[in-house]
Specification:
transmembrane, membrane, MCP_dom_sf, mainly alpha, 160 residues
């Protein structure tokens, strides 16, 4: 579904266009861009827990903040860094997913002028996701929810 979502966001094409893509170019055409998406997820979600914990402990040690506050701030910092560095893989996902599509929007984003904005935007998005995820998960556990439920709740809240 990531492929369909990405195509719709970048090209504005509806679901019938995605189905037509399969009919015209086969599954290979439909799944174009998935490899870069997987690489992007590995770069951001692989180190997510370790980076968040290291950042949280650093914030707590340096500032003396409570664990609750340090999780929110530390996870935002680690999320920003992982998102910033994953931006090239995310951009590759977009480019491969809409290969052949002519769009002024895409050409504007590929200028060197916009490169930092893409990296910064990716970092900000991940900062919000990670801080929301980890702070929600911690609060859910404090309320007595089992681990599976607290992680599910945190993930659902973080992506909305």
């Amino acid at each position: 579904f990531d492929v369909i979502k990405m195509r719709q966001q970048v090209t504005g094409s509806p679901l019938p266009d995605a189905i037509a893509s399969i009919r015209n170019g086969g599954l290979k055409n439909f799944y174009r861009g998935v490899g870069a998406g997987v690489a992007q997820k590995i770069m951001t979600r692989g180190p997510m827990f370790l980076a968040s914990e290291v950042s949280t402990q650093g914030v707590q040690t340096l500032t003396g903040l409570s664990r609750d506050s340090a999780i929110l701030i530390g996870s935002a910092c680690s999320g920003y860094v992982t998102g910033f560095f994953a931006a090239p893989a995310e951009w590759a996902k977009v480019q491969r997913g809409v290969a052949g599509a002519s769009s002024g929007f895409l050409s504007q984003l590929s200028t060197s002028h916009a490169r930092f904005a893409r990296f910064h935007g990716s970092g900000c998005r991940n900062a919000v996701f990670d801080s929301t995820f980890f702070a929600t998960e911690m609060q859910a556990r404090k309320q007595g929810l089992p681990a599976a439920a607290s992680y599910a709740m945190a993930a659902a809240l973080a992506v909305t």
